[in-house]
Specification:
The complex is a heterodimer of chains A (566) and B (230). Chain A contains 15 helices and no strands. With 566 residues, chain A is an all-alpha fold. Chain A has a single domain, classed as Cytochrome C Oxidase, Chain A (Up-down Bundle), CATH 1.20.210. Chain B is α+β, with helices and mostly antiparallel strands. Chain B is built from 3 helices and 10 strands; from the N terminus they run ααββββββββββα. Classes of the chains: A mainly alpha (566), B alpha+beta (230).
């Protein structure tokens, strides 16, 4: 079945769209991608503001935070909970998975749109409803949920322990929206990639970005089911007084811990995979080299997906789990480092012998590698059960997972935004402002989280609203204040990007079709691509995605399809 | 990484040094890899930046190159297992094998307090058991068996100087042990978010010499009996 018979004939010619069908209830994958991008940016403002409040309270306890006021313990608990939930489900997921999957998957495989455009629209609006529910929970009586983003019961399962009822129900519903939306979206990306590839786009010719977005969708798909069941039980406990997780009613809190981390650990890879995919595509373009070990990387990704489901209990070494289980889960944790180590080395090997153009998207990806490496290495401390006896629940953990998630979401995600921006909007971003954005983000990110390794190694525990109550932590006030000032600067730095966005969209130079002489199909489409992406004729793929610097060729690149003008 | 371990609190228990040596070992290995890999990354980006008249090498990864990567990965796996091998006996000592202990104390957690319950003269935790609120006294040098339980939500019993940590689960009784090597007062904190008052859910660990401990326990008992007699 060719895709022109799939209801896309109407896209072959120009047709007028109303404002609402174009910008709001759009079924165009590119517009939906941009909607996800905008939503994640708005939610990042909320999440970032909460990060500021957390850091303020930790460094300067019991002093009113500017633009907010005193962060009392009840507010602190709510803020850390919302910060985690927002950043993972309403910033990380839309920014790294939904936005690029929607915008890039059809373009990179040579399709005209997603397989199920209406489902796609639904997936955005469900996320939107979830975001509204979560933000509105701030204003309901009893306040927002305050049981930690991991939502451990009994604390999170009954208002008896926190006094929060409506907020907790809204939180679970928001979580449910995020999970449903990502499931619908993931199904759509998978079906699209399976059925709507352009002629000649064999599996071996699919760009890495697409492969890794699919790996991310699959990883999410098979880990979310148990958590959806868990969230349903949690909702029943909170709203209707059942006792699935309440020991006093015969329930079992550890069941939630298992369900949560069975999802929670793979989720880290759900956010890491897309960044790897962008990284490999961007590297190939700017090193002017084929990706090193294309097939090896795919095998590694497959095994990492499989292994991601059997490592979760390393989050639960201190939970009262049978201590004999530490050994098997330590071993699986070691094993999952193998495919990732190989992928990272393949990235290094791609750099080697390259002719590297030090352009902005590439440098974001180097920033991603440089910082993620620290996240990976510090994970070795926490993967060791015996070291975890001391480090679990300290700021060391906070620093570690921010060194894994922030590089993926920020450095990887912004690498993608800078790289594909000309394709998205037909305009170029200002380079100087981009370099400044990158340099300051890199400095202040490290300034925020590096000190927290030291603070955590000193034994300071996370999630306490008032460190001034602990004389043993007074020695870390300097480091904490340094981290807080860095965090504020990090947040302020993002204004540079917003300024660049406004400036470039309004006054930026027109972008060419293919500003980087890149091979993959999206660069054959116009910038920005029209509704339906390609003109009357689909691209016909005739070569691999990374045929750069092939000896004996006149130019150092080879577009994947040659039947359309580049 | 980089003098991070300087912040570690003092070592109070007999196994604190073992845990620290695992931390030091991991710190050394990851420190070497950190410097090596970041250095190599910078080297690659600088060394292979675009120069006039030079093109990139057209390579997809031949067998020899891939073998290099696999060999390097194998070294990492070996070191990972070495870390776990070194840590395994520490984990077994602290978490798996409960040694014969000199005394048993029940640690009861609730929002947002710690209560330490000592057995009566017959060794029972019946009505005559002695309760101490937020003050955990132990005799120095003795092996203490603690039974952790919570009355409401999940808490976490963290003694940083002892290097002991364990979640305290509602309606479960979790057995842990530790010993002490030096008289003094040390910290007890709750390391699991447990609600509004979590931030102040602390207690004090008093490590006394045997005489002081006995006196304290006797006075505590007297106080309690006096309280019930009235």
């Amino acid at each position: 079945m060719s895709q022109d018979q799939q209801g896309h004939d109407e896209h072959g010619h120009e047709h007028q769209q109303s404002f609402i069908s174009h910008y709001i209830f759009s079924t165009d994958h590119k517009m939906i991608g941009k909607q996800f991008l905008l939503l994640s940016a708005i939610m990042a403002c909320f999440g970032g503001f909460m990060a500021y409040l957390i850091r303020w309270e930790v460094a300067f306890p019991n002093t009113p935070a500017p633009f907010f006021g005193l962060v009392t313990p009840d507010k602190f608990n709510a803020i850390i909970t919302l910060h985690g939930t927002i950043m993972i489900f309403f910033v990380g997921m839309p920014f790294l998975s939904a936005f690029p999957s929607n915008f890039l998957v059809p373009l990179m495989i040579g399709a005209r749109d997603m397989a199920f455009p209406k489902l796609n629209m639904a997936s955005f609006w469900i996320t939107f409803v979830g975001a509204v529910l979560l933000v509105s929970s701030i204003f309901v009586p009893g306040g927002p949920v305050a049981g930690g983003w991991v939502g451990y019961p009994p604390l999170s399962a009954s208002s008896e322990f926190t006094g929060v009822k409506i907020g907790a129900v809204l939180w679970i519903l928001a979580l449910a929206c995020a999970l449903v939306s990502s499931s619908l979206g993931g199904m759509n990306y998978l079906v699209t990639a399976a059925t709507l590839r352009a002629p000649g786009m064999t599996f071996n010719r699919i760009p890495m970005t697409v492969w890794f977005l699919l790996a991310s969708a699959i990883t999410f798909f098979f880990s979310a089911g148990p958590l959806i069941a868990g969230a349903f039980m949690m909702l029943m406990d909170n709203a209707f007084g059942t006792g699935f997780f309440l020991p006093a009613k015969g329930g079992e809190p550890m069941l939630w811990e298992h369900l949560f981390w069975f999802f929670g650990h793979p989720e880290v890879y759900v956010l890491f995979f897309p960044a790897l995919g962008f990284g490999l595509d961007i590297m190939a373009t700017f090193t002017r080299k084929p990706v090193f070990g294309y097939k090896l990387i795919l095998w590694c990704t497959g095994s990492a997906v499989a292994l991601s489901y059997i490592v979760w209990a390393h989050h639960m070494f201190m939970s009262g789990l049978n201590p004999l289980l530490a050994t098997p889960f330590s071993i699986t944790t070691i094993l999952i480092s193998v495919p990732f180590a190989i992928i990272i080395f393949c990235m290094f090997a791609t750099l080697r012998n390259g002719a590297i153009r030090l352009e902005l998207p590439f440098l974001w990806i180097i920033g991603f590698l440089a910082t993620f490496l620290i996240g990976g290495l510090t994970g070795i401390f926490l993967g060791s059960a015996s070291a975890d006896i001391y480090l679990h629940g300290t700021y060391f953990v906070v620093a570690h997972f921010h060194y894994t998630l922030f590089p993926s979401v920020f450095f990887g995600g912004f690498g993608a935004v800078y790289y594909w921006f000309p394709k998205m909007y037909g305009k170029k971003l200002n380079e100087k402002l981009g370099f400044l954005h990158l340099a300051l983000t890199f400095i202040f990110f490290n300034g925020t989280f590096w000190p927290l390794f030291k603070v955590g190694m000193g034994g300071m525990i996370r999630r306490i609203a008032d460190p001034s109550f602990y004389p043993q932590y007074h020695q870390f006030q300097g480091l904490n204040a340094f981290a807080t000032v860095s965090a504020i600067c990090l947040i302020a730095t993002q204004v540079i990007f917003l300024w660049n966005l406004v400036l470039s969209l309004n006054h930026g130079p027109q972008a060419e079709k293919n500003p980087y002489q890149s091979n993959t199909l999206e660069w054959i489409a116009d910038s920005p691509p029209p509704h339906g992406n390609w003109g009357p004729v689909l691209p016909v793929v005739t070569s691999d995605p990374y045929e750069y610097s092939k000896p004996g060729e006149a130019k150092d690149w080879q577009p994947q399809a040659t039947n359309l003008p580049v | 990484m980089f003098e991070m371990l300087g912040n570690l609190p003092e070592q109070l228990s007999s196994f604190a040094g073992d845990i620290d040596s695992v931390l030091k070992f991991i710190n050394l290995l990851t420190g070497i890899f950190f410097v090596g890999l970041e250095g190599y990354l910078i080297y690659l980006v600088v060394r292979y930046r675009q120069k006039k008249g030079k093109t990139a090498k057209y390579e997809h990864g031949d067998k020899a190159q891939i073998l290099w990567i696999l060999a390097f990965t194998l070294i990492i796996v070996f070191l990972d297992f070495l870390i776990d091998y070194k840590g395994a006996h520490v984990w077994a000592t602290v978490k798996e094998d409960l040694p014969a202990c000199d005394m048993t104390v029940q640690v009861q957690a609730k929002q947002f307090d710690w209560t330490f319950v000592y057995p009566d003269k017959d060794g029972n935790f019946g009505p005559n058991a002695i309760s101490s609120y937020r003050e955990f006294h132990v005799p120095v040098g003795k092996k203490i068996h603690v039974v952790l339980t919570s009355k409401d939500v999940i808490h976490d019993f963290f003694l940083p100087e002892v290097r002991l940590k364990q979640d305290v689960m509602p309606q479960r009784f979790i057995n842990e042990w530790f010993d002490t090597q030096k008289v003094g007062t040390y910290h007890i904190v709750c390391d699991e978010l447990c609600g509004y008052g979590h931030t102040r859910m602390t207690a004090v660990l008093h490590v006394d010499d045997q005489q002081t401990f006995d006196d304290w326990l006797a006075s505590k008992e007297k106080e309690q009996q006096g309280g019930t007699a009235q």
